[in-house]
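Run folding on both entries below.
>entry_1
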Amino acid sequence: MGNLVDFETEGEGSYFLPRLRNLSQINFPWLFDKNKLLLWHNFIKCFEPHLKETEEIETFYYELLLNAAKKWHKQNPKRIVCESYLALLAYEGRLHDEEICYICEHPIREQIALMRAFIPAHPECLYSASLPKEKIRTFFKTKKTIHLEDDEVAYLYDIVMKGF
């Protein structure tokens, strides 16, 4: 569900899963805003299939989510999702910041379309909407959405929601 909880464990050696004791939820100011909570749950749901086969989750992912949760009430959540996803791609070494179309392997000129995992392509190769290449280049370099319009952020957010 994406809740931050504090707990103690009991019986770690004798059970398959230890029992949780003194469980308490740590609240954030945005938890009672239905729209922000729905966006949070959608963001959290993307992590389950991405980390499904992982035996031990690195602290980067916890810190990424905690930092996002702390900013969630101050900033547009869709912007936070896009910035967090870009940080995740960079951390995992999957950030494609080349200016070559992934499909036809020709240089991308002025307009760029993005596939899942923010992989660049020509808009005509993807049959997709496009964004100015310079804005995407700046987004990849700064990892900030401040220079993007809300409709451009919505385009990026829709790409993220397709899955990590």
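>entry_2
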Amino acid sequence: MKTLKDLDISNKKVIIRCDFNVPIKDGKIVDDTRIQGALDTIKYCIDKNCKIILLSHLGRVKEESDLEKNDLYPVSIRLSELLGKNVLFSKKTRGEELEEMINQMNPQDVLLIQNTRYEDLDGKKESSNDSELGKYWASLGEVFVNDAFGTIHRAHASNVGIASYLPSCFGFLVEKELNALSILDNPPHPFIVILGGAKVSDKIGVIKNLVKKADKILIGGGMAFTFLKAEGYSIGKSLLDEENIDFCKEILKDYKDKIILPVDVAVTNEYTNEEEYRQKEIQEIAENEMGLDIGEKTTNLFKDIINDSAIIMWNGPLGVYEFDQYKKNTCELLKYMVDKNLKVILGGGDIVAASEEAGYKEKVYHASTGGGATLEYLEGKPLPGIEAIK
């Protein structure tokens, strides 16, 4: 793995692809975690007397109305506060105005360029990895650093494109992610996987890859009901991924001793946070009921299984986490892991958000910043942003 310390960047113009895809409401950043995650790499480049040019996407840009709400300017303000120095901001993604700003930069200056996906408004040039755009952005610097793990599974002009034309390496955030996740390539045992979330379809590749390595895969969340249906249980009005029932049947047949399903669930009649729920055994779910969380017996079963684990990989909450009363068992299992000092990797997305809200994110072995990137890594897929620098 070629990292930042493997290249001589002193006094050079360094382009860093960051992941500043942060939630912004009414022009204010709601959560700056991703900005904080880029600081080590940026500060290292400042210490090396570099001129630092930052690129990032924010949201999706499909039409003119998307431009204003996906403006990166608020990120430049927050970055200025965190770095304790003024961060320059270019409203343009290319052209004379941007080039002049770069020409005027002094060593240790930091410049953030407007949202790379503004270039998607004209033929999806960023998202389709337009070679001319990648070459142009590369011409603005001398070294490229990819520190955006969240988009490392995408071939975009601002990552793969630039890396095709410049000496390139990974930043400290990507290095940390890959070092942590690489443990799962050849994991210690017992290796336990916990999968939640809504749909089986989102996790098919992960299940196929990890079921060969894992000692047990514990299934929760909405996806559990498709597995239960495949086992012949009535699931009432619970979430069903009908297209993937056959996949569930096949994987249960081939790995019956590895796949662990809920034995009880929290059921209700309406998809709301207001109505009281009932704990029911899985064989007792009525036609007019839906399961919105695993039950207490299942939580205790999961605790027993993970208790002697060498490492745990967890992706996706075990209940409808947006509703307070259905986040209980996800939080309880997180607390159990932390209290027992178990080695846990949280696989990006909603489970990391859940752990942060509950105050456990900093207490686990690793909480991945990638959602789709982490899932594709766990599927064993080659990731374009990594391959380009390899």
